[in-house]
Specification:
Number of helices: 5
Largest sheet: 2 strands, parallel
Shape: globular
Low-confidence stretches: 1-5
Length: about 110
C-alpha cells in the first residue's frame, strides 16, 4: 500500500491488493482467484527467474480468465553488480516498475 500511495496511478481508483507470495506455499489457488476477482491486470514481482516461478504459476491459475498479466523478474542469468544496478538494468527498479504498470493499465 505504501508503494501505491507514493506512486498513484493517474485516473485510477486506489484499488490494489498485494499478496505476499512468500506466504502462499503451499499454493492456495482459491485465495489467489478470490483476490484477482474481476481484475483486468495482475502484476507479479519476483527476485528470481520468471520461467518456472510465480509468473508461470499465476498464468496457469488464471488461464481461463480475461486477465492481463505483467511480470517483473529476471528473464535469464543476471550478471554482477550491486542490487540497485541489477534491478535498474533489468527494469525492476521502482521507477521502471511504475512506468510499466501505468503504461499497461492505460491500455
Amino acid at each position: 500500500n505504501d508503494w501505491y500511495e507514493t506512486y498513484p496511478i493517474p485516473g485510477k481508483a486506489n484499488n490494489v491488493s498485494v499478496i505476499n507470495a512468500r506466504f502462499i506455499k503451499p499454493l492456495n489457488e482459491e485465495m489467489i482467484l478470490k483476490e484477482i476477482g474481476n481484475s483486468k491486470l495482475v502484476v507479479t514481482m519476483e527476485d528470481s527467474l520468471l520461467k518456472g516461478g510465480l509468473q508461470d504459476t499465476i498464468l496457469e491459475i488464471i488461464k481461463n480468465k480475461n486477465v492481463n498479466i505483467l511480470s517483473f523478474g529476471y528473464s535469464s542469468f543476471v550478471g554482477q553488480g550491486s542490487i540497485l544496478e541489477l534491478e535498474k538494468d533489468n527494469g525492476m527498479d521502482k521507477d521502471s516498475i511504475y512506468e510499466r504498470i501505468v503504461r499497461e493499465w492505460r491500455e
